[in-house]
Design brief:
The complex is a heterodimer of chains A (about 110) and B (about 350).
Chain A lengths: L2 E5 L6 E4 L6 H7 L19 E4 L4 H4 L4 H7 L9 E3 L12 E4 L6
Parallel strand pairs in A: 1-5
Antiparallel strand pairs in A: 1-2, 3-4, 3-5
Chain B lengths: L3 E9 L3 H12 L4 E4 L7 H5 L5 E2 L8 E2 H12 L5 E3 L4 E6 L5 E5 L4 E9 L5 E4 L29 E5 L3 H10 L5 E6 L8 H12 L4 E4 L1 E8 L2 E8 L5 E5 L2 E4 L3 E4 L10 E2 L2 E3 L12 E3 L4 E2 L7 H19 L14 H6 L4
Parallel strand pairs in B: 1-2, 1-8, 2-5, 8-20, 10-11, 10-16, 11-12, 19-21
Antiparallel strand pairs in B: 3-4, 6-7, 7-8, 9-17, 13-14, 14-15, 18-19
Helix pairs in contact in B: 1-3, 1-6, 4-5
The chains are: A alpha+beta (about 110), B alpha/beta (about 350).
Chain lengths: ~110, ~350
């Protein structure tokens, strides 16, 4: 199982086993990662599962699709490696992925 | 003055659960008025994910969210519900005889025997951008909607956002503003191509400023805003004069005025029993995502079930003493007549 490291705001990092095919948001929620609200349940409709992908990982994860890019307009402190975690599906290649959780979700 | 609608039941929320409640109430000859803050039926299904497939509606291996809403509208048509869109119920007052008087922010009034809250995640409200201290300026310098264009005349207006609302108001307020700046985090806009084009023309002509970046801080005194500090992509901060700011950051869901109606809440949800889905106030029911009880699942199908049981209890309130005979739509000619079956 790929391992994902979440870095919540001002808290210890959390390393979890992720199921291939699940979204990074689902992985975070199942493991009680603080700061991921996912208000809309993963419909790419709220921008409350915003994460900053570690810059070294961003090329592998890839850029958001147009719909996600639109939704990122509603997120707080959007950076060059911002993604909505509900739109990132876990793959074998993501073993070791590091994402940071912003201080707040909008 | 505004007229008062007299009815058996007022349903607050026109999402799938509110719509199906019309059906269950209708089978028991109860008339319903349905109120929603949005301008059309469907609630979250229509507003958030109309194209998304739903896989757990019994009897539908897969159904699109908007399709489900369309089907429900067809299913409840025989009962002729009256819809009141684009308004929010503000007050619910119990009268001496136990009935209720409701009023909306549009001034519509209702006199009803039963209230059904099917408000899902709450009402859709403009999202407050996460800018520290913005609350202090709300209502004086910061607004989430334009009520009167005149209020922006001669002001330094900053509009934040990249969708249709931001673009439409940029075009509408540019002629009256002293200076108008449109702030968006990227140089790509979601709005209608025609509006984007017109906005670009104004920028090219020097009539408005386009600032690419995110508002990080506000500058001002007391309730009077002076400037927005915009963090641009290269990390520099640009000071944009702003005596009026209009952030368009989409919608979020808030419980809203429901919290003031004296109903017992549990963690921002309405506590109900599981026999009638009645709240702590007799005659006020809550069904769908907005309610909570032991074992609650936020599924559309649970909301349908809750509506069916609620309707039985509502019937006893509206027509006390009348015997309710339980019937099936498959075999009851009385029910089929109500449904318009030939």
């Amino acid at each position: 199982m790929p391992k994902i490291t979440f870095i919540p705001y001002r808290q210890e990092e959390i390393v979890v086993d992720a199921e291939i095919g699940a979204t990074v948001m689902e992985t975070a929620v199942r493991n009680g990662v603080p700061g991921i609200e996912a208000e809309c349940g993963g419909a790419c409709a709220c921008a409350t599962c915003h994460v900053w992908v570690d810059p070294s990982w961003y090329p592998k994860v890839g850029a958001p699709q147009p719909m996600e890019e639109d939704m990122l307009d509603f997120a707080w402190d959007v950076r060059a490696t911002s993604r909505l975690s509900c739109q990132m599906k876990v793959t074998e290649e993501m073993d070791g992925l590091i994402v940071e959780v912003p201080e707040r979700q909008a | 003055m505004s007229e008062v609608h007299t009815t058996d039941v007022v349903i607050i929320g026109a999402g799938p659960v509110g719509l199906f409640a019309v059906f269950e109430l209708g089978l028991l000859d109860l008339k319903a008025h349905v109120i929603d803050i949005l301008d059309r039926p469907g609630g979250q299904c229509t507003e958030l994910y109309p194209e998304k497939p739903i896989y757990d509606i019994p009897g539908h291996p897969v159904v699109g969210a908007q399709q489900l809403v369309d089907n429900l509208m067809m299913q409840i048509r025989p009962f002729g519900p009256t819809f009141h869109f684009s308004q929010q119920v503000e007050t619910v007052e119990r009268l001496e005889d136990g009935t209720f008087r409701l009023s909306t922010d549009a001034g519509t009034e209702f006199h009803t025997k039963v209230v059904v809250i099917a408000a899902g995640g709450g009402s859709f409200q403009p999202k407050r951008p996460p800018v520290p201290g913005i609350e202090a300026y709300e209502g004086s310098s910061v607004f989430y909607a334009v009520r009167k264009i005149e209020a922006f005349r001669g002001e330094d207006v900053v509009i934040v956002g990249g969708g249709d609302s931001a673009l439409d108001w940029t075009l509408a307020l540019q002629p009256v503003a002293r200076r108008l700046a449109l702030v968006h985090r990227r140089d790509d806009f979601r709005g209608a191509p025609h509006s984007v084009e017109k906005m670009r023309e104004l920028v090219a002509a020097g009539a408005i400023d386009l600032v690419i970046g995110q508002v990080g801080e506000l500058e001002g005194e007391g309730q009077t805003l002076a400037a927005a500090l915009v963090k641009t992509a290269d990390g520099t901060v640009k000071r944009v004069p702003a005596t009026r700011m209009l952030p368009f950051f989409g919608l979020t869901m808030k419980l809203g005025p429901i919290a003031d109606w004296g109903i017992h809440l549990h963690e921002n949800l309405i506590a109900v029993d599981t026999e009638k889905f009645e709240t702590s106030e007799k005659g006020i029911f809550a069904i769908g995502d907005i309610n909570t009880y032991p074992g609650k699942l936020k599924l559309i199908l649970s909301g349908f079930h809750e509506g069916a049981l609620m309707a039985q209890a509502a019937k006893r309130i509206v027509d006390p003493g009348k015997r309710v005979v339980f019937q099936y739509t498959t075999s009851s000619t009385a029910l089929q007549r109500k449904l318009g079956v030939q």
